[in-house]
Design a protein that fits this description.
- The chain has 242 residues and is of the alpha/beta class.
- The chain is built from 9 helices and 11 strands.
- The strands form 2 sheets. Strands 2-1-3-4-5-11 form a 6-stranded parallel sheet, sandwiched between helices. The protein has a 5-stranded mixed sheet with strand order 7-8-6-9-10.
- Helix 2 runs parallel beside helix 3 and helix 3 packs parallel to helix 4.
- The mean pLDDT is 95.
Length: 242
Amino acid sequence: MTAIGIIGSAGRMGQALAAAVPDLGATLAGGIDAGGDPAALAHDSDVLVDFSVPSALERNLAAARLTGTPILIGTTGLSPTHHALVDSAAAEIAVLQTGNVSLGVTLLSKLVREAAARLGTEWDIEIVEMHHRHKVDAPSGTALLLGEAAAAGRGASLADLRVSDRAGLVGARSEGTIGFAALRGGSVAGDHQVVFAGDGERIELGHRAENRAIFARGAITAALWLAGKPAGRYRMEEVLGV
């Protein structure tokens, strides 16, 4: 069976991952947290799953490259510098980095991209997300993933269309932009809604996560798919075949 090593094993997501491993026919190679040795874990693993923190990414990627171990990165809040590190590592090992490992969200992003491609810029796009009170980044990685899908559908970069702050007298909405709203509170695992608002009608595409188990199952499914793959940067869409 495929041996999976978990980086960030003591966190809420790490614990959910460990619980999902045997249910999906894999074995747990072990887990580490801050101060642990990612190289030792990588040596004992067929594939790594990283849900730690952005500041640990460089070290985790270096360990995976040292041992030639594929790695799935679900850590959110990554900067352009982090993505450059992922690109560099993908020249040597198989890497799957994503803002959301849910298979449902993966399909949703495909639908959002298709809707954005078929609807003109007179349809305004707004992305609303809500998470539990402990989440530290906003907009969420999933919201940004959906925004990137919408922007790609319109043949543009999200950096050129994104609007995240409307506090104060900001004026009327600019055509073609993609707006974000982030809500935080309670124990919400993750709600995301993409609204396409036209004159006199709306299309709403959404996903609600009822617990972290769905993310854990998606991550382990993707990790099993990634194990044994040649070097390259992979996407969740490839796991689902969409």
